[in-house]
Amino acid sequence: MFDVRDGDCLVVVDVQNDFCPGGALGVAGGDQVVPVLNTWIEEFHEKGLPVVYTQDWHPKDHMSFVENGGIWPPHCVQDTEGADFHPDLIVRGEVCRKGFEKDKEAYSGFDGRVGQLDGPALDAWLKQRGVQRIFVGGIATDYCVKATVLDGIRYCFEVVVLKDAVRAVNVNPDDGEKALAEMEEAGAVIK
Ligand code: VGL
Ligand code: ZN
């Protein structure tokens, strides 16, 4: 395993029922990230390092839904089972909710709020803990993982993408591959 150390944080992106097979916006193999991420989560816990979980958290009339002119079927509606984390995911750490404003899309975890909807933004929360490097896995490679990774770089974190722990929507068949290339180009380490 990659040597994780002080200053590292694991960011688990949107491992929610609606993004897993059978969910409202089911991503092929989405559930397969769970055992891989659980291994990383345990590693971070053992070393006393932080783990933060992003959660897509939409009001039921969110602008990203087809009925409101968006491109997605309704998904991850607040307080529904679809918005819950996958039942096998080890959830111990802070949750960072995003996309809770009706008129705003928020793919990036850095657009979310940690702990409560009026809590700190992710950037401030990480910096307050002395985090310098983030490890990112989850769903979907071509949307929320990509946006979170690119923002992480923009906010001056070192970013490692756990490629066995991500899955893509692939609206076009190579979107996932392109997203990984774009993240690498931007400076992320693809591990
Ligand atoms: C996501 C589409 C819509 C994601 C969220 O988590 O990647 N994709 N909302
Ligand atoms: Zn969404």
How many structurally independent domains? 1
**What is the number of helices?**
4
What is the CATH topology assignment? Rossmann fold
- Provide the residue-averaged pLDDT: 98
Q: Specify the CATH architecture.
A: 3-Layer(aba) Sandwich
Topology:
Elements: E1 8-13, H1 33-46, E2 51-56, E3 94-98, E4 113-114, H2 122-128, E5 133-139, H3 141-154, E6 158-167, H4 175-186, E7 189-190
Parallel strand pairs: 1-2, 1-5, 2-3, 5-6, 6-7
Antiparallel strand pairs: 3-4
Helix pairs in contact: 3-4
Bound molecules: pyrazine-2-carboxylic acid (VGL) and zinc ion.
Pyrazine-2-carboxylic acid (VGL) is lined by residues 14, 19, 56, 64, 72, 139-140, 143-144.
Can you give me a brief rundown of this structure?
This protein has 191 residues and is an alpha/beta fold. Helix content is 25%, strand content 20%. Strands 4-3-2-1-5-6-7 form a seven-stranded mixed beta sheet, sandwiched between helices.
Structural overview:
It is globular and about 45 Å long. The chain has one domain (8-190): Isochorismatase-like (Rossmann fold). Helix 3 links the parallel strand 5 (133-139) and strand 6. By secondary structure, the protein is of the alpha/beta class. The longest helix is centred in the N-terminal third of the chain and has 14 residues, at 33-46. It has a 7-stranded mixed beta sheet with strand order 4-3-2-1-5-6-7, with helices on both faces. 25% of the residues lie in helices and 20% in strands. Helix 3 (141-154) runs parallel beside helix 4 (175-186). The structure holds pyrazine-2-carboxylic acid and zinc ion (ZN). The site of zinc ion has 6 residues, from loops. Zinc ion binds at residues 56, 58, 64, 75-76, 99.
